[in-house]
Amino acid sequence: MADNTASFSGSIPEFYDRDLGPVFFADWAKAMADRVAAHAPERVLETAAGTGIVTRVLRDRLPPRGSLISTDLNAPMLEVARRKISPGEKVEFQPADATSLPFGDASFDAVVCQFGIMFFPDKDKGYGEAFRVLKPGGRFHFSVWDDHRYNPTGRIAHQVIGSFFPKDPPPFYAVPYGYTQLDAIRDSVERAGFQELTVEVMRTDHKLASAADFARGLVYGNPTIDQIRARGGVDPDAVVSALTDAFEREVAPRGGLLPLQVILFETRRPN
């Protein structure tokens, strides 16, 4: 069975933003925005922007004169992102494929992509497009999730959801945590023409306010819900219930804390 791991449509964006955003994305958005703003770029492109969690923080960190174009392959995600930006703020929203960007060469001072490149079907094209649209000296900032050893969320979600479909488990949670080989990433970045790649591993323990809300987001807030429905025979709410129990067991000995670990990258187009 073919599964689309990059389609975030229907009600998915709302669940993604409400139930997953505070756990998965908000803290890392601040770390990413701080790194981008440290170089005071005036024209910034964000790819795989999702529901605008980075967009909002980045707009606050950029110089007042700076402009930001926020893009995502999935237009419904950007509709949620638009609500976070007030009229008059220098943010444009545009559906776009990060592996085939509709912008001219040397158009931006910085390109930003938080937790998106893992989903690119051709990652070399993604790096190549980021390089092409950057001005000489421009910087590409991107991040990925570290693997299941450091992120129990991915392991638990993959195992629990898969237990309902032993012959054909939904593959979504194998994707976000499967792009962690630093040498391969470095090779791709350098093939695109970038120089001076820096790598930083960051870890935090997030206080999980509601295992039930988080479990609901893990099922309904990404293409997993479409993969479950396509297979049939299983009530998605039963999967949510099983995940809730699993995460309560996971965080109870940790005082309610959920480990999260990411890898942040920064590289530069030569002058």
UniProtKB/TrEMBL annotation:
Output the GO biological process annotations, alphabetical, semicolon-separated: methylation
Q: What EC number(s) does its UniProt record assign? A: 2.1.1.-
Query: InterPro entries under this entry?
Result: SAM-dependent_MTases_sf (IPR029063)
Class of the enzyme per the UniProt entry, highest EC level = transferase
Q: Does the keyword Methyltransferase apply?
A: yes
Which keywords describe this protein according to UniProt?
Answer: Methyltransferase, Transferase
Instruction: Cite the Pfam families for this sequence.
Output: Ubie_methyltran
Q: Output this protein's name.
A: Class I SAM-dependent methyltransferase
